[in-house]
Amino acid sequence: MAKLKDLAAIEDRLVAGHGMCIGCGIPLIFKVILRATEDPLIIANATGCLEVCTTIFPRTSWNVTWVHSAFENAASTISGIEVMYKALKKKGRIPKDKRFKFLGVGGDGGTYDIGLQALSGAVERGHDIVYVCYDNNVYANTGGQRSSATPIGASATTSPAGTQSPGKIQRRKDLTKVLVAHNIPYVAQASPHRWQDLYNKAKKAFEVEGPAFLNVLCLCPTEWKYDESLGIRLAHMAVDTCVWPLYEVENGKYKINYKPKEKKPVLEWIKTQGRFRHLFKEKNAWVLEEFQKQVDQDWEELNKLESL
Amino acid sequence: MSKFVTLNGNQTIGEAARQIDPDVIAAYPITPSTAIVETIAKFKADGLISGEFVCPESEHSAMSLCIGAASAGGRVMTATASQGLALMWEMLYIAAGLRLPIVAAIANRSLSAPINIHGDHSDTMGARDSGWIQIYSENCQEAYDNFIQAFRIAEHLDVRTPVLVGLDGFIISHSMEVIQVEDDAEVKKFIGEYKSLYPLLDSKVKMTVGPIDFTDYYFEHKRNQLEGIENAPQVIEEVGKEFGKKFGREYGFFEGYRLDDAELCIVAMSSAAGTCKDAIDELRSEGKRVGLLKPRIFRPFPHQRISEALIKMKAVAVLDRSSSPGAFGAPLFTEIRSALYDYEERPKITNYVYGLGGRDIKIEHFKEVTDDLEKIAETGKVEKVYSYINLRE
Ligand SMILES: Cc1ncc(C[n+]2csc(CCOP(=O)(O)OP(=O)(O)O)c2C)c(N)n1
Ligand code: SF4
Ligand SMILES: [Mg+2]
What we know:
By secondary structure, chain A is of the alpha/beta class. Helix content of chain A is 36%, strand content 14%. Chain A has one domain: Thiamin diphosphate (ThDP)-binding fold, Pyr/PP domains (Rossmann fold, 3-Layer(aba) Sandwich), CATH 3.40.50. In chain A, the strands form two sheets. In chain A, strands 2-1-3-4-8-7-9-10 form an eight-stranded mixed beta sheet, sandwiched between helices. The model of chain A has no long low-confidence stretch (mean pLDDT 97). By secondary structure, chain B is α/β, with parallel strands linked by helices. Chain B has two domains: 3-247, Rossmann fold; 255-388, Rossmann fold (3-Layer(aba) Sandwich), CATH 3.40.50.920. In chain B, β2 (24-26), α2 and β3 (52-54) form a beta-alpha-beta unit. At the A-B interface, β2, α4 and α6 of A face α3, α4 and β9 of B. Iron/sulfur cluster binds at residues 20-21, 24, 26, 49, 53, 136, 140, 220-223 of chain A.
């Protein structure tokens, strides 16, 4: 098992000086994930907070080779790099013993929405890549628009709460299951507050041959509208309420990595977040009930899948 | 040894691709370029290509893959047409902005709506400001020759700019022609080794590629990007000459047909030029002093050379196989008219749009255009600057 002390001794691949908000979950996630392989790494990053905040020319926060080409195509861009690696290796233009790891990265917008097709195509083709989605439930970089990962009831600028609307009314997409349906070797859901679990999953993802997908819950104090001093506790609570279960699917076999001793009500997660504030009005009570129902259903189903 | 083979335009590109054997080929099928992708897939399946072939889930991803692969550090190609090129649009600019020498074969086809699968130049003309070099081919032989030269041009260290090679959908992509295919080894020698610049797959250097520019750098970077396309003319010329020396077919920026003593000139690109040459032979036998100027390179536009060739004409008709709704003329015409502006004495000039959605253009149509040109030369007046050929109105 990885020790924090040992991880801390590894050189950072995403270094200080970036412009991400105080309390942002993105650096927490990537500081762990990027330590999970020692091989040279090439990252293709979709447009979004991580990309914009780390590479304002002429500065960069990346201590690893990194490329950005567009919003919806991190998966196809990293596929192209991986294919070229294979081609050059076969032709002997890259020495046999040189290894690289290929990582595609996108937010929920770049992954659940506009980049879903590219991701589906890339994993179906079986490229030896890892794709990480940092899911902050929102298009944060562009100021807080809804995505298909936005939970029911959340107010976003394109699904705002109003006198006639309780915020987003649709159920969120279960992208992790969509990836499981691609029958790829490794799919997992993780959260930065359980860094050891996240580290293990990233390590597996890098080690497995063929495509691997990690969906990681990402804190966003700016768009979730909470006091950043609450910090990582919001990640804890997302997992303890089973809004964001931690599990992995290895060659089709489900394993839940953490089961809360006492499953907390969804209310405990949303009550400190401004984006859900309007749900406490009486007329919106049904939304919270619906949210709870969906979480219960999903959790029950996940447990069933694990027992198969 | 070079040999004569009967191939259609798509197979011709496939054959050139097999000889060049790029490190990565990523392409998605669409009529009329599908057979390029299929030919390559079969070559790969039969072990005749050593590079990797990927068939992604869309053209957007095909171009994204090309961008990833080219920035990784190797030779890359794709092929598409019409809606496929339109779907790539976002990524075309990025390929050019990142100075990636990707080569694309485009079986030129109209754009929807209405959906139509036949040949015109709407697709590549829509991409004319994307930063790609554009080369157009009259027939299968030219498509083959242009495609080979495209790699040399794109990959030249002074250029490092993507190149597309157009061949007219169906009219060329699906026409059988006896073409001279050069020896595999000679083609490979002509292309040479790929030199990668700043490859991502360099384990010694950690690079950030494609960062965000704000108002303080974007403009300079866009200006820098232009250097590649500005350096292209010299390279295009050298490569065209070298190709001629080696394989016996020399290429320049345009081809003139019976132009030297002409007073009237028709400007037409791609397959229509072939028909136009026949029309000119007939018109010449009737004593009409008409010639053809067939642009080969559309981007960078060879404005000076074309102007110099046209300046002594009495009247010029520019034929466009695409339109530019709301503009003062179609793309080729606006380029040429603008290029002529700097000359005090310049020919009268008129524009025709023809062949949209694959509509035929025949010898009789070139004769009608010549009649118009004669009238313009006689009266010194252009009655209609913009008209259509073979259109029911
Ligand atoms: C084709 C295209 N459409 C829209 C945009 C504008 N855009 C840039 S980033 C972004 C949202 C990103 O959201 P997400 O992927 O969740 O990443 P986050 O900002 O939350 O990190 C949008 C809509 C774009 N760059 N490209
Ligand atoms: S807006 Fe949210 S995701 Fe973006 S940098 Fe700030 S906290 Fe992080
Ligand atoms: Mg997001």
